[in-house]
Design brief:
By secondary structure, this protein is an alpha/beta fold. It folds into two domains: about 5-80, 434 Repressor (Amino-terminal Domain); about 90-280, Endonuclease, Chain A (2-Layer Sandwich). The chain has eleven helices and six strands. The chain has helices spanning about 5-25, 30-35, 40-45, 55-65, 70-80, 95-105, 125-135, 145-155, 180-200, 250-265, 270-280; strands spanning about 110-115, 165-170, 200-205, 220-225, 235-240, 245. It has a six-stranded mixed β-sheet with strand order 3-2-1-4-5-6, with helices on both faces. Helix 9 (about 180-200) links the parallel strand 2 (about 165-170) and strand 3 (about 200-205). The chain is elongated. It comes from Nocardia bovistercoris. GO terms for molecular function: DNA binding. This is Helix-turn-helix transcriptional regulator.
Amino acid sequence: MAPVSPTVARWELVLRLRELREQCGFDSATFAKRVGFTPANWSHVEKGRRVLTANTIGPVLEILEVDAEDRAELLALLNFSKQRGWWTKSSALIGPELQRLYGMEYGAQSIRSYDSLVVPGLLQTEPYARALISADVMIRPVQVEQLVSIRLRRQARLRGAQRVELTAVIGEGTLLQQTGGPDILRGQLEHLARLLEELDNIEVRIIPFSATAGSILGGSSFHLIDFSGERLPTFGWVESAVFGGAVDDPDLVRDLGFAYVRARDQSLSRADSLALIRNYAGV
């Protein structure tokens, strides 16, 4: 079971309220007026940008005619959503979108990721992370060490009693790309090998150069996050050189799922991937 995340609780709350509103036949603007919100403010609520209070959620539950059991669940989600996760305390360094990603990661049951030339952040060593972060021209040098610390803190979910299940599909080029130089790359590959040997909740699958459709996804990078709660859909996140953000369209999240399966199908087995990593690391 994953730990409770305020970010995930808020997401579940707004998804369930939106579903209930639609089941009752209200459009967003009409419902907003019924519960004393402007249409714009209610839109912010349903997008998770504005948090309801114990007072403002009352009329919402009344008009939606929520029964006692669901009311208790929704109020519990509201209370959880008001807690502060460690990622929100770094708001001066990371914006709302990254805070959302880290909050989703913290409450995840499993994560599927695809990267063509970079080891995903949850599996990076400190020197490797520092090399990547310091190379970003948009990041000031004074921020580098703080951002490295944040990246490493995210990795706590890989260990302990509430481990997240992580499957990372990466291209073979990642094992050759001299990120930070040969010593840093070697240390990163040795770290990957150790993780695969020690932790059964981590799987790294390498798409070899010999894969006939190995470059089908090009240089894209994305993550698919799933949760233990049955009511929650998959959360999608995509990244590029200048953009990183959530994918809120369910159809696009579905398409990312298909793309992930295609990439995984081109990859080596866990055992063969480990052997390839060891080979490049020289261990």
